[in-house]
What does this fold into?
Amino acid sequence: MKLITNLFIIFYCCLIQAQQTDFVDFKTAKASVEFGSLDDNRIGGKVSYQYEILKDVDSIFLDAKDFSMVECLLNNEFIAAKYDGNHLVIKHNFKKNEIYTLDIIWKTNPKKALYFVNKGDEKQVWTQGQGKYTSNWLPSIDDMNEKIEFDLSIVVKNTYQVVANGKLIDIENYEGFNRWNFDMQQPMSSYLVALAIGKYDKKVETSKSGIPLEMYYYPEDSLKFEPTYRYTKQMFDFLEEEIGVPYPWQNYKQVPVKDFLYAGMENTSITIFSDTYLIDSISFIDKNYVNVNAHELAHQWFGNLVTETSGTHHWLQEGFATYYALLAEKDIFGDHFYYWQLYHYVQELLEQEKAGGNTALLDPKSSGTTFYKKGALALYILREKVGDKAFKSAIKNYLKKHEFKNVETNDFISEVEKASGKDLSEFVKLWLESDAFESDLVIESIKQSKFMNDYLKVDCQGDKSKYADYLNSKISDEAKIKLISENPNFIRKEDFNNSLKVRQAIAKSLSKIPSELNSDYETLLDDKSYITIEIALYNLWNNFPESRHEYLAKTKHLQGFNDKNIRTLWLTLALITEDFEQENKSEYFEELTNYTNPSNHFEIRQNAFQYLKLINACNEKCQENLEQAAKHPVWQFSKMAKDLLKK
Ligand SMILES: [Zn+2]
It folds into this structure.
């Protein structure tokens, strides 16, 4: 009978899953989540849902994955619910137009969507709902068409801070614990429910419109605050103005966390981002948080205020966030930057086309490149077609009409048609329904920028004197970089008298360094760029063995980015350079091996594993850490570990 019962439940659940929003409207959720000792990765809690029945029905369900204990009370009375490890089914004669209260008490040890991370001797807890399902830690509705006002209340040891959706109302003290009470005023899909627990300091700015912008950072990283959050307020003010609809939530928080699965995630009013973007001012040159910052912020409207009904309309979130982030960056960095990025989106899509990977924007299986880049370019072309005024008014009407609800592509297109008076069926066919990518249209359009037009034309056709003429002229850095990387043999002494970016291109292009350029190339070790220094150190070490000690001595105290790109390279070179600080070698080896430990950021560990494997020095400890790394939640990292284990 078990098999039949199970089959029945599965069929039953799937049948009602498609329709539940037709007969139940979940209104509010008051959830109390308790973190005992953060060491055992266990949580428990109680959530109280209020919902209205829209049609008479004999059962409702919630998603709840792998809970070890679940109990339910319907209108304050215990009720036996069916729980199959995935769904919680409550049978009852629910009557139309009535409001019910359902309390769920649960315990679990979440396998995903809520992560416990070691950061040195401390703990961090953070969530990732999109793609992982919040129902792994909070009984909820996975269907993003169900929007609920979630008020979270989090209990945790009093040495930790909590950041979650909404406004912090108060903190209640218990013996050794605090209860953090948050209030939301508007509904959201469950994949946007989020919290982060850790040790943080914060600074708060206020937007032009009066929204508090809370920016979190690690207490030991106060010097990284400014470069990390540079332009935050400017971008916030810009997007509110550009979109024409006020920011929809009570406040906006940004919290960095260790070993995050992605660059950032736009949970409602709380963006969680990878602490790899907590950067110093040198890192800012090559790798900064500006784009991720703007992208996640734009999602607060496109994704959170209006949410796709299904994956078919995913570009309404990612294409829009990419496009609006680019507009915010244009406001900061100017037109060159803007057209340059558009040009790169085209290149990325052309690469995808070459690999046979192009799909329609409305294909739910499309790649990130299609959803993000083709989506942004579609909006760029659409705006060119209908003009700024109609575009902006359509965006405003679209957001206002569907606020706190779900949307499909046609909801947007029909607003643009209304505002512009234009028939967009041709645009829809070409840009949304077709697999093809209209690269020529975009290239033609971005040639209106003189900078891009010049860039596309510049070509020395393998002629050294033409190369010299160009490099001596007033062409853009991007054009110089193009010539340098295409003609590394032509690089001259005077080409080193250029900007950081051009010098970086020289560093990259010259893996074989002519002896007459040796002293110029050595000056790259002084550049304020961790990429340039890393490449220059390796190339110099490789090209001029007689000066290895000198190069190592000069770069001994550098760490590089948060992933310690320079330090891990330096340790590796120090270990394999004959006669170099023989007495310190075991210490250097230990340092490099210790970087493979799980308490380090996965990016540091990745570098350490790769270098240790490269020089055949991954000892027992390193091997053990590598096996542990193969189970890491960041898939790129676990894949690298698995690949290295195979070798
Ligand atoms: Zn996004």
User: Anything to note?
Assistant: The pocket of zinc ion is lined by residues 295, 299, 318, 321 (CB under 6 Å). Confidence is low (pLDDT under 50) at residues 1-17. The first strand starts at residue 24 and ends at 35. The chain has 25 helices and 22 strands.
